[in-house]
Amino acid sequence: MSTERRVSFLASVREGIEGFASRSPSRFAILVFASLIALFTALLAQPFASASGTPTNFADALFTAVSTICVAGLSTLDMATYWSPLGNALIFTGTQIGALGVLTLASILGTIISGRLGLRTRLIAASDTNPLRLHSGPVAEGQAIRLSEVGGLLATVALSLIIIETVIAALMLPSVLAAGYSLPDSLWYSFYYSAMAFTNTGFTPNIGGLSPFVTDYWFLTLIMIGVILGSVGFPVIYALSRNLRNPRRWSLHVKMTLFTWSILWVGGIVAYLLLEPSNSLVFTGMSPGELTYQATFLSTMARSGGFNIVDISQLDSSTLLFTDMLMFIGGGSASTAGGIKVTTFAVLILAALAEARGRQSIEAFQRRIPGDVLRLAVSVGLWGATTVAMGTLIISEFTDAPFEYVLFDVISGFATVGMSTGVAAELPDPGVYVLALVMFMGRVGTVTLAAALAANQVGQYFTRPEERPIVG
Q1: What per-residue confidence (pLDDT) applies to 283?
Q2: Fewer CB within 10 A of the end CB, N or C, for the chain?
Q3: How far apart (Å, rounded) are the C-alpha atoms in residues 388 and 443?
Q4: Region for residue 285 given its phi and psi (left: phi exceeds 0; alpha: psi -120 to 50; beta: otherwise)
Q5: CB 302 within 8 A of CB 255
C-alpha cells in the first residue's frame, strides 16, 4: 500500500470514528469501555499475569477486568497473592484508565484520533460533566464546565491523577516503611494505595490489607483524603483550582456537590455513632475518639472508597442498610466514585420539598432548576434502583448467603464501592457474570443513559389534551 493510500485510509478511519463518536457519544463510550474490558480480560487470563504461572479462569479474569476498568474494587481472588508483578501492573494501569470516566476517556481518544480538541470532542467531554450538553435546545450558562473550558478540564483530569496520587504516595511512604516493608515494596505499596484511594477502587496490594495500618491514623487519613478528592468530581476540582477563594463564582453544580456531599458525610458519621456501637461487637472497647474515627472512616469509604478496617459482615443489619443507602447515592458527577451521584439525589430531594411546599419550581442557591434536569434525575435514580433490584434477585438464586449480604454486595458493585460481606468471592461463575454486568452498568449506565436521554429528545409541534391520573 502506497504512502498516499495509507494516509487516505487512516483519514477515512479517523473520520468514521469521529462521526460515530459525535452522533452517539454514549454508544461510543460503551464501546470504548467494553473494548478495554475485553482487552484486559484477555491479558489477565494469560499465565504471565498470575503468580503461579497458570492461566486464570475466564470468569475470574473477566470479573477482575470489569472491577478494574470500572474502578469497582470487588474481587473473586486474593489481590495480594494471586497476581504476578505484571498482573498487578495491569490492574494498576486499568484503574488509572477507568478513573478518567466514560465520556472523558472517549473525548481523550477522540483528541488522539483527530489530533485536535475540536467541537465534537468538546461536546463528548462536556457531556461527561453534564449530559444536558447534548440537549437539542439551549443550554443555560451556569454549567459545571463551559465548552471553552473543556481543554482545561481534560488537563485537570490528567494533572489530578498524577499530582494528587504522587503527593499522597510520598506522604504514605514513611508509614509503609515503618510497617516493616522493604524500600522497593514500600514504594510500590505507597503508589498502589494512593492510586486505589484517589480512583476510589479499594484494592490492597499487601497480605492483610489495612491490618498493618489499623492504628496508623496518618496513613488512614491520607487514604480518606485521596478518596474524598476522587469522589467530589473533576469539574469540582477544576472549579476550586480556579476560584477557591471566590465561592460566588462557583457554579450551581459545584455548590450542590459540595453541600450535599458534606451533609451526607457528616450525617453518615453521626448515624454510624448512633447505630453501630449499641448493636454489635465490632466497636466494643473503643474510646470515644476511636469510635469517632472509625465512623468517619466508614462514612468516607461509603462514598465509593471501598477500603475497610473492620469486618463488614460483622456489622449490624441497620448499619449495613444505612451503608447501602450511602453507597447507592455515591459521590460527585464526573468523579472516580459511583452511585447515582449526590447531585441526582439532591435534585430529587429538592423536588420532593418543592412539592411538599406547593411550589411549582425547584430552586437551590437562588437558582431555578429546570424540569428536564428533574426528569433526568428521576431516570437515573430509577435506572439504578432497577439494576440493583434485578441484580439482587438473580444473584440470590446462586447463593445461600443472607439477603442483606447479597443486597450489600450488589449495591457495592453497582456503586463501584468495593466493600464486601464476602458474597462476591463465593459466587459460582454464573453469579460472577451477573455481578460483573451490574458493575459495568453501574459505572457506564447512569452517565450514558442520561446522555442518551438528553440527546434523543425530539421536537414536538403539538400538545395533546391534558388529563391527570391519580398518584399516591
Answers
A1: 76
A2: C
A3: 13
A4: left
A5: no
pLDDT of res. 338: 85
Spatial distance between the Cα atoms of 88 and 80, rounded to a whole number of angstroms = 9
Q: Is it the case that residue 65 has pLDDT exceeding 50? A: yes
pLDDT score of 395 more than 70? yes
Show the cell assigned to 74: 470487588
Residues 370-382: pLDDT tens digits? 887 888 888 889 8
Instruction: Please report where in the chains the cell 452517565 appears, as a residue.
Output: 447
The residues near 354 (Cβ < 8 Å, ≥ 6 apart) are: 360, 361, 362, 363
pLDDT at 109 over 70: no
Q: Over 60: is that where the pLDDT of 138 sits?
A: no
Which pLDDT does position 309 carry in this prediction?
A: 86
Report the distance separating Cα 123 and Cα 195, nearest Å.
Answer: 28
Cβ 404 vs Cβ 179: under 8 Å: no
pLDDT tens profile 19-62: 655 566 666 777 778 889 999 999 999 999 999 999 999 999 99
Residue 267 has pLDDT above 50, yes or no: yes
Q: Which of 44, 34, 107, 31 is nearest to 70 (CA)?
A: 34
Q: Three cell numbers at 348? A: 430529587
pLDDT greater than 50 at residue 139: no
The domain limits of the chain are 3-455
Q: C-alpha cell of 350?
A: 429538592
